[in-house]
Amino acid sequence: MRALLFDLDGTLLDSLRAHFHVYERVFSTLGIPLDPDSYQRNYSPNWYVFYERMHVPRDKWPEADQLWLKFYAQEAPGPRAGAVQILAAVKASHRALGLVTSGERSRVERDLRRVGWQALFDVVVCGGDTPQRKPHPAPLLHALDRVRVRAGEALYVGDTVEDVQMGRNAGTSTAAIAGGFASLPTLRSEQPDFLFETLPELAGLL
Asked: Taking Cα atoms as reference points, which of 41, 110, 119 lies closest to residue 75?
């Protein structure tokens, strides 16, 4: 295994609560109710899929995007427990370290600066860097091409069904971490190569 690539929100950042608060404010502004159950049931890291599931009119999507960025600027989620240690362990192992996220680049870079990770990753691929989004393999394959590692020599780590699907579609091994945006039973049903209840458990693979 020559490279480990991670999702950001819910995997490395403890951002589940912050994202719910932001979406709750966005949808309230648009006159659409959102409760925790419907959020969990309909959530997707591809927010346009989420908009569709929540019946947000397409002509409101640009407004929703701008509201999301505005409200998220008031949030400051920190690292998930064990994230700092895991990232340090990957660096110490001299493997390539990558980030592949659906998040918009300006927001992602602001989060990375805030937690001190702005120079940590060998490659950072954000939403919009490829025409396709998760679970399409294009973002992950783009990152692997940048670090010159074949898919079969890489592990993708995420916290959602779409993360597992993207890794599988790209041909990498997959590790799912519970406690983020998807429950342990939901992740188990997707059959990732590795399934952990906490992020520090990933250290055993190194």
From this structure: 110
The conformation of residue 122, written as its DSSP 8-state character, comes to S
Residue 73's Cβ-count burial label (10 Å; 0-12, 13-18, 19+) is exposed
User: Over 90: is that where the pLDDT of 206 sits?
Assistant: no
Tell me the whole-structure pTM to 2 decimals.
Answer: 0.93
Element spanning 25, H or E: helix 16-29
Which tops the pLDDT comparison, 161 or 40?
161
Q: What is the pLDDT of residue 12?
A: 98
Q: Are 108 and 8 in contact (CB under 8 A)?
A: yes
CB atoms within 10 A of CB 85: 14
Tell me the per-residue pLDDT of 116-147, one tens digit each, with 9 for 90 and over.
Answer: 999 999 999 999 999 999 999 999 999 999 99
Neighbouring CB atoms inside 10 A of 123's CB total 18
Inter-residue contact 69 to 127 (CB < 8 Å): no
Residues contacting residue 181 through CB under 8 Å, at least 6 positions apart: 9, 10, 16, 19, 43, 45, 159, 160
